[in-house]
Amino acid sequence: MNLYDLTIHQSHELLKKGEVSSIELTKAVLERISQVEEKLQAIVTVTEELALRQAERADERIRSGDSTPLTGIPALIKDNMCTKGIRTTCSSRMLENFVPPYNATVVEKLGDAGVVIVGKGNMDEFAMGSSNEHSAFFVTHNPWDLSSVPGGSSGGPAVAVATGEAMYSLGSDTGGSIRLPAAFCNIVGLKPTYGRVSRYGLVAFASSLDQIGPMTKDVTDSALVMNIIAGYDPRDSTSVNYPVPDYTKALIPDLKGLKLGIPREYFVEGMQEGVEEAMRTAISKLEELGATVDWEATLPSTKYALAAYYIIAPSEAMANLARYDGVKYGYSYDGENMWDDMEKTRQFGFGPEVKRRIILGTYALSAGYYDAYYLKAQKVRTLIMQEFQQAFEQYDALITPTSPTVPFKIGQKVDDPLQMYLSDVCTLPINIGGIPGLVVPAGFCDGLPVGMQILGKPFSEETLLRIGFAYEQATGWVKQRPPISERENDAS
Amino acid sequence: MKLSREEVLHIGTLCRMSLSEAELERFQEQISNILENFDILKEVDTDNVPPTAYPIHLQNVIREDKAAPCLPQSDILANAPHQEDGYFRVKAVLD
User: Fold this and answer.
1) A 362-421 → B contacts, CB under 8 A
2) Which of A1, A81, A132, A327 is deepest in the core (most CB within 10 A)?
3) Residue A486 binned pLDDT confidence (cut-offs 50, 70, 90)
């Protein structure tokens, strides 16, 4: 086994025993990056020097017996989380040269835990997209099939974890941006409850939907990262002051006593046959592990979620992105006068999808349309939330597919925004509801990964992790790694 | 309902974003198509349903008014495209 293939908990064991050093782990990951990055295009900025410096410090910490389970373990941060002194681009021309003067709270927390940051992950511009094709810099490739998309918007972070360019990543999820790429790349992705992880220093896309979460090689790693990043932060007024458990305590390998619902609305028309098959097999496995399964669960308003989401998210985005005016930071156009500067800064600084959403959001909020679109969407949001609430009175968790299909081809949907939006149909209701969602690998269809999505009520991450853990222990799909090196040999 | 060229142009003004002719045409088409699909929301009876802005119940989150150090001015200005004497510099707002 290669060092870069290790999980966080395996690395930690070796570090603790002194069988490997953080410097060795970090060099292995950096070496891996230099080998595969040309094919994958997952990373915007590689921070080699910083990583080696942090690794050295981590080794000292480990020697002095002052380590945490994340100390000395190389991570990739999605490029929309502020890293002091390291440029944070959101994969946008607008922020191509932006160097934050402060750290996001999650980055600070990882820093305190002894993180080694190997780089910043590529993404759809400002996290708007489902394929990573909307990065202003380059398209990230799916390691399972280089001609397919890795999912988005946290595509770079997902690919890096799947291929050993990092041991784990932090992603952000506004409508599926952690979960879809996790499913498409055969890794574990958790979107925590809204308010569970601080958003301070996360470049805002849609403030009532955004949430940061771990992208990892297995469920144990997900729990370990949550232990560090979860918790109240006075600098994020929407973060919730609710006790943080030790998430690893939830990891028990059976599901006895758990009631699971399968909401039929998530088995949508046009769902790929192989995906449905994989899901049915996965659900029987959950039953074997001791859970009771009800196939008759229902969330009737699910079909309205897509429309509600694509009104709410762009409306919030247009307000959040008003700050990019070429005055305080970022790209700045030098035109005829102040207004010309501002209007052209935004024309040339933003890419097509970001502009599309700003236009859509501005329209939905403009005089005469506010009630019909924005207010209506907010009311539908209430209904969707109520249905989740009712469902969780009956079930401990809901099980759904993450996407109706396996990864699609690069170029297939990029010119058809509505088709692209439909990729999020199974993931975005979760952000509308503010509830947590965990994605775990659940098999393959035509050689491409299928992800199972596990949903629970607010602050039920422990239940989700338990289900994911039991399933992962019983199946081992999570251990499958993309054949990226073999592919390399084939090509040569 | 299809958005007119003038409507898209007007929205561009509202959000202070210039649009090229090609963009105007493309967004006219695409945004109209998207909005048409959103008509599905008209089916939902929301007469007695209150709107939700945030998934958690929050009201007036306040903290103690305590002084604490902030970032130095030079750090904040370091990313400014144009600055002068400790200020962000822009062209004249009023002629």
Assistant:
1) 362-363, 366, 373, 375-383, 385, 417-418, 421
2) A132
3) very low
Say if A356 is an interface residue toward chain B (CB within 8 Å): yes
Specify which residues A400 forms β-bridges with. Answer: A453
How far is residue B23 CA from its own chain's centroid?
Answer: 18
pLDDT value at A492 more than 70:
no
Neighbouring C-beta atoms of residue B33, cutoff 10 Å: 14
Q: Using an 8 Å Cβ cutoff, are A226 and A464 in contact?
A: no
Could you give the residue numbers annotated as active site of A?
A: 78, 153, 177
Average pLDDT of B78-82?
96
| Residue A366 pLDDT greater than 50, yes or no | yes
Whether the complex's predicted ipTM is more than 0.90 is answered with yes
Q: Does B15 touch chain A (CB under 8 A)?
A: yes
Give the domain ranges of chain B. Answer: 5-42
- Looking at chain B from residue 19 to 78, which residues have their Cβ under 8 Å from any Cβ of chain A? 19-20, 23, 27, 30-31, 33-35, 37-38, 40-41, 43-44, 46, 49-56, 58, 61, 63, 71, 75-76, 78
Q: Which residue did the predictor score with more confidence, A416 or B57?
A: A416
Q: Which residues of A touch B30 (CB under 8 A)?
A: 356, 417
Q: For B56, which of A102, A240, A329 is closest by C-beta distance? A: A240
Preferred mutation among A196, A197, A363 to probe B, highest tally of B CBs within 10 A: A363
A314 — contact with chain B (CB < 8 Å)?
no
Q: Which residues have CB under 8 Å from A138's CB, separation 6+?
A: A41, A122
Q: Are A355 and B17 a contacting pair at CB < 8 A?
A: yes
Report the residue from B11, B38, B52 with minimal CB separation from A366.
B11
**Domain covering B5-42, topology:** Histone, subunit A (1.10.20)
pLDDT tens per residue, range B10-62 = 999 999 999 999 999 999 999 999 999 999 999 999 999 999 999 988 788 88
Residue A269: pLDDT band (50, 70, 90) is confident
**Residues A93-111: b if buried by 16+ CB within 10 A, e if exposed:** bbbbebbbbbbbbbbbbbe
A203 near A90, Cβ under 8 Å?
A: yes
Report CA A444 to chain centroid distance, whole Å.
Answer: 20
Of B19, B63, B76, the CB nearest to A347: B19
Contact A52, A26 (CB under 8 A): yes
Residue of A nearest to B38 (CA): A307
Q: Which residues of chain B does A370 touch, with a Cβ-Cβ cutoff of 8 Å?
A: none
Q: pLDDT of A221-258, one tens digit each? A: 999 999 999 999 999 999 999 999 999 999 999 999 99
Q: Please give the backbone phi and psi of residue A7, each rounded to the nearest 5 degrees, phi first.
A: -80, 175
A420-479: pLDDT as tens digits: 999 999 999 999 999 999 999 999 999 999 999 999 999 999 999 999 999 999 999 999
Model confidence, pTM: 0.97
| Distance, CA of A168 to CA of A182 (rounded, Å) | 12
The two tokens of residue A376 are: 């209506």
